[in-house]
Amino acid sequence: MKKTTLFIAFCLLANLFGCTNADKPKPATAEEFSGNNVFAQEKVLSPKPPPPGLSTSLPPQQSMLPPAPNNLRLEQGYFQANDGVQLFYRMVGSGKDTIVFIHGGPGVGIHDGALDIELLANKGYTFIEYDQRGCGRSELVRDSTKLTMDDYVEELEALRRHFNIQKITPIGLSWGAAIVTNYANRYPQMVRRLVFLSPMEPATEFDKRKESIDAALGATKTKQIDSLFRLMEKTTNDTIYRTLFVNYLSIYLTAYVIDPSHLDRARGTDAEVSPLAIRNGDQPLWRWSGLSNQWDFRPMLKHISVPVLVLEGEKTNVPLNSTKEYVRNIKNAKLVLIPNANHQNWLDQPEEVLNALDVFFKSTFKG
Question: How many structural domains is the chain composed of?
């Protein structure tokens, strides 16, 4: 049971994160993170955070972000959830059709895939991404009673209202697929169509995933990440913690791309999120992993009636049978497997993924 719980934490901390040490192919040292030299000069700061909304929270943390692609319109700021939690958003482009990206995790932010998929704005869309509560640049919620699935669903609805979007088109990555599924069941009239990008298992099947990932990593790497994870649990030094975290991901995430060098394609990196935000990400992470033996939202999938695209890499190390559950249970779902791509298909085959999304959106958009 202990090993299963540890693996669940691994998956939620790394695979569901999808975040990388993009700027450093080699494992980083503590000295390299002691100053601001790791940040590229052309990158831009998040806006100054507003005051926190909860007494059990920490203020949002400023951190570096890349500029908008191709000088597209860029807006960054904060919107407020129903309970007052301040949530960071980033909006790129100015197209008629608006796409909302829900990142993986739980416990990380838009550097988990969103900063890469925002290149979709080049094809004529408005692209909105946001950091979920408790992580990234949003308010660092510590109260576990404010980190429920209901809270994640309602903050997505708060975003829809904030931007006055009549019907949203969400892309749910990994853990984000769970949020999108619950949102579509609670607010079916507010969804135009949706995408499940490398979605998490709709029901608990971590034993099968563990076998597959362990085989892909091999015994040596598995021991290395086990050691790093336990060191992270023990250290109280934020700089050391972040160094261990980045080194851990640099090893673990090699199981999710077909070529380790593809991790360097990511536009976001954990080095650009504050150590406080990375550490506080444990709050939503552990709350979810504590419920990990109980979830099964396949019955919810049967109620989704809008057009759905399920996107995964053809060579993923995550068992495809779980991904295919989305297509089996959703009447209007289409499965697209990206050739020569693993679970983080947007890094392995970026153009193919963006083109598949563009084709789906343009074929299903109506007025």
Answer: 1
